[in-house]
Amino acid sequence: MPMLLRGIEMLSSLQRDALKEFMNVSFGQAASLLSEMAGQKIKLTIPEIELSHISLLGKKIEDEPFANIFKGHIVSSSLAFGNELKGKAQLVFPVKEGKILVSLFMGDEIPLEDDGFMDFSDTDIDAMKEIGNIMLNTIVGSFANLLDKQIIYSLPEVEFFHYPDHQPKFPHETGHYILLIRTTFSLVKTKIEGVVFVVLTMDSISILIKKIDEMLVELYG
Amino acid sequence: MDNLFSLILDQLELGIIVLDKDYKITVWNGWLERLTGKTAKQVIGTKLTDVCSRLNSKLYNQIFQDAILHGKHRFCSGAMNQFFIRPADASRCPQIKQNMLVQPMEIGEARCILIQIFDITGQHQRVQQLKDLINELSITHQKLKASEEEIRHHAYHDFLTGLPNRLLLLDRVNLAIEHAQRNKNGLAVLFLDMDNFKLVNDTFGHAVGDQLLQDMALRLRNCVRKSDTVARLGGDEFVLLLPAIANPDSAAVIAANIIRTVVEPWVYKEQELFVCASVGISMFPKDGEDAEGLIKKADKAMFYAKGLGKNNYQFFNDAMYNCTNGGRV
Known about the structure:
The complex is a heterodimer. Chain A has helices spanning 13-38, 57-60, 95-105, 122-147, 202-220; strands at 43-53, 72-83, 87-94, 151-153, 157-163, 176-186, 191-201. By secondary structure, chain A is α+β, with helices and mostly antiparallel strands. In chain A, strands 1, 2, 3, 4, 5, 6 and 7 form a 7-stranded antiparallel sheet that branches. The two termini of chain A are 16 Å apart. Chain B has 2 domains: 2-119, PAS domain (Beta-Lactamase, 2-Layer Sandwich); 166-328, Alpha-Beta Plaits (2-Layer Sandwich). Chain B has helices at 2-11, 30-36, 40-43, 48-51, 58-70, 78-81, 121-156, 166-183, 197-204, 206-223, 248-263, 291-307, and strands at 15-19, 25-28, 74-76, 98-107, 110-119, 187-195, 229-234, 237-242, 266-268, 271-273, 276-284, 313-315. At the A-B interface, helix 1, helix 4 and strand 4 of A face helix 5, strand 3, helix 6, strand 4 and helix 7 of B.
């Protein structure tokens, strides 16, 4: 098992691939639910996944490939969870991409940036809340299953912030780690880039890595 | 106390349903009674999916199952699901919008589900009205932009031929002069007047005259480079601006080509028609350093060419100033 230290690569490439594989299954379930909601085929892919100490989050989102998403106005849908597994999961989009996504889900025309339609109405916020709820419930649920932990879920909250003036809100306590998952929503008409953050405690991360190693042993012996 | 809670529950402006682990209704408040016309007495003990057929789908079954088995909370928006509880008056269905909140609840050892239904029809309609208003404003804005563009085009272009008019020509000549000064280059201005155009109008009518002017514009454009300007000043007068020409011989070649092109026959109503043109040429910087002056001198040279018997081109020279009757003096 690799050391859980700040500033160093926390996952080996094999562990990263196994985690990506596991997340792909979970994202696949979320995609199937979202497709049903949107009435069109939605594919969720995970081009990048990283595990990092929470204190490095600021640095991580300044660098590629996350820097493209953290530019200017951001919309996020977040969900806190507790009990045996404590943390927070957050789905983040640039406001423009988020607006396009909810418009596609609601069957509205895709807004153009210079149309001035980039503001979120109450209805758009509701739709974003539901999209976040479906995705984050599925992702957090799959972690709970993998780690065999009981979870108490909360209701999702939608927030807007301007990066870098306002940073995403996460518990910055020592011992918290964050999974950064860059995700692409492929819809019929367009592709939308977003990020999913999952903040977990050191205990949960240790169990997660142990589980990943078990998966690798099963796979490669 | 139970009566008090029941009274409060019935007064709420939202729908409250509580389901037991078998998805049977245990609470159905007054708001839902008013909406559906179904009383608590009628529905309590019945499966929710039997009372609300809309919730009898794989998607909602999964949501209720996730709440009971995994303690998952779920928000379902009216924006994506329209509504969840059908009103008694079915004609309201197309307008109605509801949000639904599904939350697991622990009562002692037993887990049950709390469902809250919020009517957001008014909020949705306001958003829709706002969207419609923005759409209308956007269409009006597009129309205004298009008509502004059209007005701007008309202000700088000749209505009949679509060529630049005097205003745009002056601007382009001035810009070309500035450019030539910076690059120590020259330019030529050709003033063209059709010979005997009045005769075409008188013989064939104004419709043919107008068609001839439009076709002349096309032939002239085909005689020059893309970067050159062909303008119509009015009547049968055209001016060509040829930037980046230092040698008068190059201007002479173009002028001769234009004259040859103009004398080619023009066919209207199966009749061949012949016209010719006189062309005057002024050169920058030799003949002047401003647009008005260069055009005026090219005009003077054109007038001189006409005096020499038409269908030819002449370069401006100062002697032409003393000449009041073209080349005949």
